[in-house]
Amino acid sequence: MLYRQKFDTFIRQYDDVGYITSKSDFGDRVVDAAGAVFLKALSRTGQSLDALTAKIAASFIGVDTAVLQKDSAEFYAMLEADGFIVSGGTEAELDAKDTRFSYATLEPKTIKKDFTPVIMRAEKSTQEFLDEHFKGKPHLTSLQIELTSRCNERCVHCYIPHENKISDIDPALYYDVLGQCRDMGLLNLTLSGGEPMLHKNFLEFLRKAKEYDFSINILSNLTLLNDDIIAEMKANRLSSVQVSLYSMKPEIHDAITKMPGSFVKTQDAILRLIEHDIPLQISCPTMKQNKTCYVDVLNWAQEHKVRAVTDYIMMARYDHTTGNLDNRLSLDEVGQVINDIISNDTDYQKEMSGADIAQADTRDISNDIVCGVCVSSICMIANGNLYPCAGWQDYIVGNIKEQSLREIWDNSPKVQYLRGLRKKDFPKCLSCIDKSFCAMCMVRNANENPDGDPLKINEHFCKVAALNRKIVMDWKEKLQGFVETT
Ligand SMILES: C[S@@+](CC[C@H](N)C(=O)[O-])C[C@H]1O[C@@H](n2cnc3c(N)ncnc32)[C@H](O)[C@@H]1O
Ligand code: SF4
Ligand code: SF4
Questions:
Q1: 45: which residues sit within 8 A by CB, 6+ positions away?
Q2: pTM passes above 0.85
Q3: CA dist., res. 424 & res. 430, Å (int)
């Protein structure tokens, strides 16, 4: 019998624990130090139990081989039952069992399966376990690289100032950083831009990322998609491609991107990726131009079983110029979008009908972290500058040409500062009755503030949160009235 990790699972060792995660719907598992040895023995080619046990035996001095073999058979059987690995008599049998993402088998709304956890079971979620485990020594798990700031579109809302859309990453720098990421056990690599496919080395960059066994996410307008890129995407362990589509009306999409013909190219590319079973997510930010037709994008996506998300909170450009916000929805217009969502999104309705929103959330969250920036994730632009989060390019925490990624991650004063922030550093938010409806975000604060202060709360978000709460309260009241009269 041969055992192999599945195409879309990833294995990492973090200090003395092992970690396996699946980009399908199987979630993840953490195992203790002994389990980590069993996990690490697995690879992407089939191995017999004898071969696996021989590898494992090197780490357990004086343990009987028969005992190890029995333990490993049980351990791998559990991982297989949980959907992380496959076993079979031949590589062909392993291939047949190693089913990949496919739109044909996708349910329109994916229902998370209830896999009874088998390993490191249950008192805590994996994320809680890892957070606790890494406390005091946060681990970099996600990096976003802006391969180029150049772009073939000129979107009216873009947070990258158009005059800065000029630089490509040097391939040598990209390969160097990837090597450093591998040594640090990085899991998720996001390739973005500008338009990442404009970089002439994009294909080789994708190949190298596959070699280093990262889970890859691409953010693109897809207008430059071609057969070679599709073939590489198919071979690659892509967790997803995120594409921006703003309207199903070509003239509106093109008016946002300022590139005539862009709608047709992006829509065609989306259909080709669906045809090739490449996992997609559509991003459809709402703004003045598409406020009456963004819903068509969400419906079209649903018809094609593609997840689509909208976002009505536009951020200012990273150089603190705010001209792009002329396209942001006014409060009344945001209200209309929230009303649309609450009337049509059954998931949101379910979530809201259960929530006791009349009461302020009284849990003590004062010592909770604010978000994952510099706790588990960081970003880099073409010149090697590292910064905390997409859109926050001017908050430079270090440069990779001057210091290693490890040094910046461990020692940069700005990284330490952001990492040390807690919810109590936003005192106005702690006691805020609207906080359950709020998307408070440091980059959105910083970009819209002339001094770039991430702690200075952006009042626009407070107004949106208060409005959101009011709309949900009114909706709940109406629902209650309806239930009582029927
Ligand atoms: C900067 S783009 C880079 C990838 C690619 N060029 C694209 O447009 O998909 C990534 C995403 O950021 C969104 N975006 C751009 N400017 C934004 C802003 N000011 N606020 C919020 N999202 C923004 C885009 O719509 C896109 O979905
Ligand atoms: S949002 Fe993306 S496609 Fe549009 S200008 Fe910005 S980087 Fe280019
Ligand atoms: S609404 Fe304003 S004060 Fe309240 S949590 Fe959000 S940002 Fe903080």
A1: 4, 91
A2: yes
A3: 7
